[in-house]
Amino acid sequence: MLKNLLNTGRLLLPVLVPSWRFFDEIAPSPRIEYCVFSDDDENAGAGENWREFRPRPSDVSVGRMLRRMIWNPRWNESLFLMSCAERLMSHPTRHSEDEIFDRILTDLSMLSTDTLENSHVTFRLMFIYRHDGALHHHVTYEAEPRPLYSAGRHHGF
Amino acid sequence: MGFDLALRITGGVVGFAFLLQSLEYLYSQRRYRVVFAVRAMLSLLLLIGIGAEWALILLWLMGVFQLHRFQGPYNGGSDRMGMLVLSMLVLCRWLPEPRWQEIAFGYLGLQLILSYFISGWVKVVNPEWRSGQALRNVFEFSAYPVSETLRGWATRPVLLFVMSWAVILFELIFPLTVFNFYSLAIGLGLAATFHFANACLFGLNRFFWVWLSAYPALLWLQGRILGGLGQ
Prior knowledge:
- The structure holds two protein chains of two kinds.
- By secondary structure, chain A is α+β, with helices and mostly antiparallel strands.
- Chain A has one domain (30-41, 53-155).
- Chain A is 38% helix and 23% strand.
- Chain B contains eleven helices and no strands.
């Protein structure tokens, strides 16, 4: 009870007394990459099968930008996942990992079930940052793989 | 702007913002759909001004639930501002003394000023912002640009330098606009344009609506303290 109250206070305090330090520095930026592999693949997760999760489109029309003023669920969810990725670096919790896995599984559930049965899925965080004038990419986190089929029961597999 | 009118507009706009958010949650969340459906209905009540007192209380409790559910704000600063607006509206509706209600609403207006000024201050003390490098980083590798085409802006240093200083100067100068009703109206118009641009370029549409909802608090505060010309 006391722990819950303290946690609520910890979450509410920055709301009631905000810091407003927007973009004070441009921190290393996370990308979520996922990998699906079959159970009998011994090199699971170590190969070239990593794909960026929800890559941005090459272009967005003005009309679409205007529509997004009132309807932008997917992008806002992706921003939340970026927050989860940053939280995994600053104070890792099962919650942040679950949230990312949940969205990956949801997106994968749109694909054919045949190719996903008896498979595992995992994700990693690739952080991009500038150092000495050049851009660098660095993998900072790799989640434990989870069985896709059993996890996918909740996602329409 | 009168206190009651300012409260009504703030409640209406933030109700609209919460309605959009709730519909988005209903679309993308599989769990707690009933919670977000109820939140959508309460937001609608706040928007149209029916049963707003109770809707505010329930929306605030749901805001606390959401902070737990997502272990913090779902969309950073926009959710924080939304919850701040909501908290102050609850106090304005439920505190017994008109003076306390005015203090709560004035606090929201003050926080709105600080939201711009502090954002400008942390930028102007950062050499990377002063040189335009920070904005180049935003376009080149941050997660915010909504398309790959926009990343091309990173190769336009003069444009980014001008944009950086335009943002810094606007944010720093904003508090000075409150000394006159008309300058404040212009300042808020520029601020809304700034949020609109951020929504288009970086997909931060939630910031636009939530910040807009707090503007009546500052318009009222300006008139309350300085007796602005707009009253």
